[in-house]
UniProtKB/TrEMBL annotation:
Belongs to the short-chain dehydrogenases/reductases (SDR) family. This is Short-subunit dehydrogenase. The keyword Oxidoreductase applies. GO terms for molecular function: oxidoreductase activity. It comes from the Bacteria. It comes from Cecembia calidifontis. Gene3D superfamilies: NAD(P)-binding Rossmann-like Domain.
Length: 234
């Protein structure tokens, strides 16, 4: 029976790399984005590379609870994924005392609440099935405070706490929970900066780490993966 993976924010960067990696292993895919054209491009390229597999794409803004619920209902009408990757996120730099009004709400809604509501949508079925693997895309910003991190760092610290709690709740149901905590990875958000590319990690390395953690035997789980550039944090 074909396995499936749900990756939020799957059209670019780390999300896209994870889709490609699991696609290579024969997985069907569910994903979403706020941008319909990006979804169309992804769908076309995925089906070209993996003609025997399925991909379900949906335009959705997961910073909104109603959109998370709509998206999860669409996915559940097709399948309960074997793997769930909470990858949707946004980064807006700023200090807590001076960042623009609304930064906190936007990043908490996008980076944390989306994962909370989407995970809740699938846990009952995973628990009944007694299988599944849930990944949360955190950040080293959720481990170490740094200047100009502001609400982004707060959201990622909260995401790590959410994932730790989820791990304890689901371990007796044979459901694995893993937090991915990457450092600077070259994605669209870094385009245009005057920093050598060799200072960044590759999205393919993050995807390979997710696959490796998933691919362990049922007797082991990787709870956290911290990945940093070889030359250190930026």
């Amino acid at each position: 029976m074909t396995k499936s993976i749900l990756v939020t924010g799957g059209t670019k960067g780390i999300g896209r790399a994870i889709i490609d990696r699991f696609g290579e292993e024969g997985f069907d895919v569910f994903t979403c984005s706020r941008h319909a054209k990006d979804l169309e491009t992804l769908e076309k390229e995925f089906l070209s590379r993996f003609p025997g597999q399925k991909i379900f794409v949906t335009e959705a803004d997961l910073s909104r609870k109603d959109e998370v619920q709509r998206f999860s209902s669409l996915v559940k009408s097709q399948a309960i994924p074997d793997v769930l990757v909470n990858n949707t996120g946004i980064f807006l730099p700023g200090a807590i005392h001076s960042e623009p009004e609304g930064n906190f709400e936007m990043m908490m809604q996008t980076n944390l609440f989306s994962a909370y509501y989407l995970t809740r949508a699938f846990t009952s079925e995973m628990m009944e099935r007694k299988s599944g693997h849930i990944f949360s895309m955190g950040s080293i910003a959720g481990l170490t405070a740094y200047a100009n991190g502001g609400s982004y760092a707060i959201s990622k610290w909260a995401m790590l706490g959410f994932t730790k709690c989820l791990r304890q709740e689901l371990k007796d149901y044979n459901i694995k929970v893993t937090s991915i905590l990457p450092g600077a990875t070259y994605t669209a958000s870094w385009e245009g900066v005057e920093i050598p590319l060799e200072r960044f990690m590759k999205v393919e390395d993050i995807a390979a780490s997710v696959w490796s953690a998933y691919n362990l035997s049922p007797y082991s789980v990787v709870e956290e993966i911290v990945i940093r550039p070889q030359l250190g944090d930026l």
